[in-house]
Write a structure and sequence with these properties.
This protein is 34% helix and 21% strand. It has 114 residues and is α+β, with helices and mostly antiparallel strands.
């Protein structure tokens, strides 16, 4: 009997699917990035917590929902939102910058949604 070899990511992905899709629940986090910021300034476990903080400080920027422990590149492929069509789509620079318009996101100006 041949035992398949898995990378750490393969093993994590398998455990993730077993845990989350059988249970029909994905843990989501919410990342806020201010306008013209290079990095995220806050991560929240609940949308409501993010909204309260954004309103309190009258922030402008974007709040994006991310599945926890599930990279957006794989999430988009696994959900049929993206299909790599050439070698460029599988290189590390592309994957490292990948985002998807299918992710839930909200734009804020002075603490209010647009």
């Amino acid at each position: 009997m041949v035992v398949p070899k898995f990378t750490i990511w393969d093993t994590t992905k398998i455990l993730y699917f077993e845990k989350n899709f059988k249970m029909k629940k994905m843990n989501m986090v919410y990342a806020f990035q201010g306008n013209q910021a290079n990095f995220t300034s806050a991560i929240f476990s609940h949308y409501e917590f993010a909204l309260e903080w954004i309103k309190k400080h009258k922030l402008s920027g974007i709040l994006t929902e991310y599945p926890l422990d599930y990279p957006i590149y794989e999430w988009a492929i696994d959900n049929g939102y993206f299909k790599p069509k050439n070698d460029h789509h599988t290189n590390s620079n592309f994957i490292g910058h990948f985002t998807s318009v299918r992710q839930k996101h909200w734009h804020f100006v002075n603490g209010n949604t647009e």
